[in-house]
Design brief:
By secondary structure, chain A is mostly helical. Chain A has 9 helices and no strands. Chain A is 85% helix and 0% strand. The longest helix of chain A has 31 residues. About 3% of the residues of chain C have low confidence. Classes of the chains: A mainly alpha, B alpha/beta, C mainly alpha.
């Protein structure tokens, strides 16, 4: 079976599990929404500050939700030793990586739409530069999903997996945080030209992580 | 072939070794003509392991699980359904794995295994949790295996039940891969399958 | 006297000389009553050591991953070096903060170097947490090696992004991240001596930690062997049928 078809099979499997269990819908989306609210309260609902801080707060919520999504993506592989099943299946490690990362990315995209609406409404943001926003979000999400998937499999099977993954992922994706917030800020400030360099940074980061993931996922999956 | 031995003797470890899941630390091993030291990942596609865990996803249905296993192995569509028929799980095809009973899960794992048309079928305590009907299914599957060019290796301590299914038997006692320091060399199983 | 003891003695000597020079011999900065500049003799070596330590970790991780050079010692070295690196990074951040207060008027500044260092600190803290989750080299070796490499490659990426962010962020920055010190002859010498002394300290600490790790690793193996031997002895005492 070709690489892409294998990846599609794995992505389909993960998304089907999500559709059946609705964990992302019923737990992760509300969690992200609560974070948005929490941050608003933390900033004292200052009506002048919230729109300025909106990009950062948006991405903070998404980053935290990513950790949950990755935890879930690999949680299903822990039960019933499905991880061993994947190893026995003969599927290529790289295609499993792409499949799982794509599934996480899809969930994150949908989450970003929901959280985006919440942020626009709650923080009173004027949306400008939609194209830039979408491109930046696309690159950032791929980067996040890929990094999360690499660390997810790296910590798989370990006792402290659930607490390790956030500690490993969040420092590593700081460049994504910077790039995404700056790009969003530039777009909302009606200066989309300033945003494109950041989008490039995000794209480069995403490509690097995906390359690393395709290579490293198989060997990491082998670690019991 | 039957792999007999007391609890903790190393039967599961040996099966996982033959499946290519565990690395070979010492000695030599050859499975399906491939050296375990270098090719253990290549042989996995031709091997199926049915162990204590089912390798399935709790949220997916029986049918979805077996289809995933079959498609991952590169089988044609329809193979999964056929496997379900053979193990008698057709009527619960749309029940989620998480809601199955122990015996039904065992049968699903068996269906996943035969759907892949393996050349080597490794069964770890297959009788555990199976009812009369389940055991009949198991016996049928094992009996048919040679027709599909498949060798079966069963690890079990249900000796009476298992002996009916097999033609050869070995015993494993305190099997380990390294010879002991400062003691006479312990029996080290060398398996050629 | 063993080689290690000699090395330790030399290290302490070098550190002592550095301290004397730093605290008494070299002049304080002219236009400041508070000679916070002396902290730099501590801060700069710490920075150097941190980068050296994480570089060694990355190198050792790479050597562990490559099958031809794979050896458990590389994993132990990577861990030992990372631990020392994290300590020096923390020290660097603290000392830098103590220096920043009188110099910039604030404990923290969001300049590129500080921010990158903070992120680097957390990257390796995660790496150390990962190391603790596996008991033996066999269990954790590959994972930690890959995590160590990712962390190392990430640091320049972080630095680049933060520098970029910083240039956009600060318009007419008040904080000058460069060491705005007139390099007096004796100061330059002290700095170099400090770096040398700290490098020796790094070497000694890593050596000690590495040996400790080897002992720990050996203990796991010995306990395993003992358990197996015990096992076979009890099996033999019962009636057995040879395979």
């Amino acid at each position: 079976m070709s690489f892409l078809r294998e990846a599609a099979l794995v992505a389909g499997k993960d998304l089907r599990i999500e559709r059946r269990s609705r964990v992302a819908l019923q737990q992760i989306v509300p969690f992200a929404a609560i974070v948005v609210l929490l941050l608003a309260f933390a900033l004292d609902s200052d009506s002048t500050m919230l729109p300025r801080a909106a990009p950062g707060l948006f991405w903070a919520a998404i980053f935290l939700a990513t950790v949950l999504a990755v935890g879930r993506s690999f949680g299903v592989e822990e039960a019933n030793r499905a991880r061993d099943g994947l190893r026995m299946s003969g599927l290529d490690g790289g295609s499993i990586f792409v499949g799982k990362a794509v599934a996480v990315a899809v969930e994150l995209f949908l989450l970003e739409v929901v959280v985006g609406i919440a942020v626009v409404v709650l923080y009173d943001v004027t949306v400008r530069g939609v194209l830039v926003l979408v491109c930046a979000a696309f690159a950032a999400t791929i980067a996040l999903a890929a990094t999360g998937t690499v660390y997810g499999v790296l910590a798989g099977g370990l006792r402290a997996r659930e607490t390790l993954v956030p500690l490993l992922v969040l420092p590593a994706v700081m460049p994504v945080m910077l790039g995404a917030t700056r790009a969003f800020q530039a777009a909302l400030d009606n200066a989309p030209g300033d945003a494109w360099p950041w989008v490039q940074l995000l794209a480069v980061f995403a490509v690097l992580v995906c390359a690393a993931g395709v290579v490293a996922f198989g060997p990491l999956l082998e670690e019991t | 072939m039957l792999l007999a031995g007391p609890n903790g003797a190393g039967k599961t470890t040996l099966l996982r070794l033959c499946a290519g899941l565990l690395p070979l630390r010492a000695g030599t091993g050859e499975v399906l003509g491939v050296d375990l030291a270098t090719g253990r990942k290549r042989i996995r596609r031709a091997i199926a392991l049915v162990g204590h865990e089912t390798f399935c996803y709790d949220d997916l249905t029986v049918l979805e699980n077996v289809r995933f296993a079959a498609r991952a192995a590169g089988c044609e569509p329809g193979v999964g359904e056929a496997a379900l028929e053979r193990v008698g799980l057709k009527r619960v095809a749309n029940v989620a794995h998480g809601r199955l009973s122990q015996g039904q899960r065992r049968r699903l794992a068996l269906a996943n295994a035969i759907a892949r048309a393996p050349r080597l079928l490794l069964l770890d305590e297959p009788h555990a949790g199976l009812d009369e009907e389940g055991r009949a299914v198991l016996e049928a599957v094992v009996a048919e295996a040679p027709q599909h060019d498949c060798t079966v290796m069963i690890a079990s301590h249900e000796l009476e039940l298992a002996r009916r299914l097999v033609t050869r038997e070995v015993e494993i006692i305190a099997g380990q891969v390294h010879p002991l320091p400062a003691a006479a060399p312990a029996p080290r199983p060398e398996v050629r399958v | 006297m063993t080689l290690k003891r000699v090395f330790l003695a030399l290290t302490l000597l070098a550190l002592g000389a550095t301290a004397v020079l730093a605290l008494w011999v070299t002049p304080p900065r002219e236009n400041e009553g508070f000679d916070a500049v002396r902290l730099l003799y501590l801060h700069v070596p710490c920075a150097w050591i941190a980068y050296l330590a994480f570089g060694i970790t990355a190198l050792a991780s790479l050597l562990y991953l490559v099958p031809r050079t794979r050896h458990p010692s590389w994993d132990l070295l990577a861990g030992a070096s990372a631990e020392v690196g994290v300590i020096f990074t923390a020290l660097m951040l603290i000392v830098g903060s103590l220096w920043g207060r009188p110099t910039w008027g604030t404990w923290w500044a969001w300049d590129a170097r500080l921010t990158t260092t903070a992120i680097m600190f957390f990257l390796y803290l995660g790496y150390l947490a990962l190391r603790r989750s596996g008991a033996t080299v066999a269990e954790r070796g590959k994972r930690c090696a890959i995590a160590g490499l990712i962390a190392f490659i990430d640091v320049p990426v972080v630095h680049f992004s933060v520098t970029w962010w910083q240039t956009l962020h600060q318009q007419g920055t008040v904080f000058n991240p460069k060491l705005d010190v007139q390099i007096d002859g004796s100061m330059a010498f002290t700095l170099v001596l400090a770096v040398a002394a700290f490098t020796m300290l790094y070497g000694y600490l890593v050596l000690e930690r590495f040996e400790l790790a080897q002992l720990e690793e050996g203990r796991e193996e010995r306990e395993l062997q003992l358990a197996i031997a015990e096992r076979v002895r009890t099996e033999r005492s019962e009636q057995v049928v040879p395979a």
